[in-house]
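The aim of this short unit is practical: by the end, you should be able to scan a pair of folded records and say something sensible about each. We start with the first protein, listed as its amino acid sequence and then its structure tokens.
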Amino acid sequence: MATFLGIGMIPTGWMSCASHRHDCWEIVLYLEGRGAITVGDEAVPFVPGTIVCLPPRIPHFERGQIPYRNYHLAFSGFAAPVTGVPRLRDDEHGSARRVCELLHREIRLGADGWRAVCQHLGAAFIDLVERGARPAAASAPLVDRLKAVLYERHREPGFGVAAALAEMPCTPDHARRTFRAATGRTPLEFLTDLRLAEAEHLLASGSTVAEAAAQVGIDDPYYFSRLFARRFGISPSRWAAARGRGRGRGTARSTPGR
């Protein structure tokens, strides 16, 4: 199991870093610039979003074609997801970068409990690295993009699947078929699952049926009630009453869209 040891950040404006080595794994995420990091005898090009995993005790140095900036994280007990010098990409949402920003802030501010928080964030970063190393299906970019649009816009009033499909680089029918083959759900079912999962949280937190419907992008509370009852076998008002409306905050489910 990987243990997070620390994080640093090269500020904007660097053009090179002299050859050095570490006794632990170092994982570098490039934020800006362009150039190459040479690991042993292997030159690895980098651009924003490149992630390079540097094995222990292997000399490495950087040369920028233009000024660059990066986060560099140290881990012990890391098991590389691929052989050689693993090089990966941050995802389109910048998930690894966001985790690094949180890590850097936590370790610099040193607030109460920061060590435990950093270990959890470090584990999340490793999970992202390992996920990025797994082979993706040919359909993954399209499916991920459609999921992202549905998630980002599911709270918008009047937003529907047609609007999301219109943003895809293919025909709506192809996107629907590809999405269902990859997830086992249609885009509409995925969108409905997102909305109902959030509605559960809102109802448990004290929102009325009309408020919950509006906050998850459904204009008609009666239509929302029918969807809710079809999924859970009980009306949203009775569901909220049975759980004691407003007694505490709801908790998001761990299954995406469920």
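Turning to the second protein, read its sequence before its tokens, just as you did above.
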Amino acid sequence: MLGKIEKNSRNPSKQFIKDISILFSIDENLLTVAHLSDTVAYSILEEELATEVLKVAEEKINYYNKNKAKK
């Protein structure tokens, strides 16, 4: 399964990331950030406006988190 994840033919589950972090003594958050950032980067890599998309996405995340905290 690790080979498929490395070749981007399969996405790891949260549990798999947790298990790998324990097995290799790596911070789980570090692996999660690496995985999610790869997923996002590869999904918009070919877009001309990729950098702008990331900026707007960050603004939206901040907005959603801010409003979520108010509830």
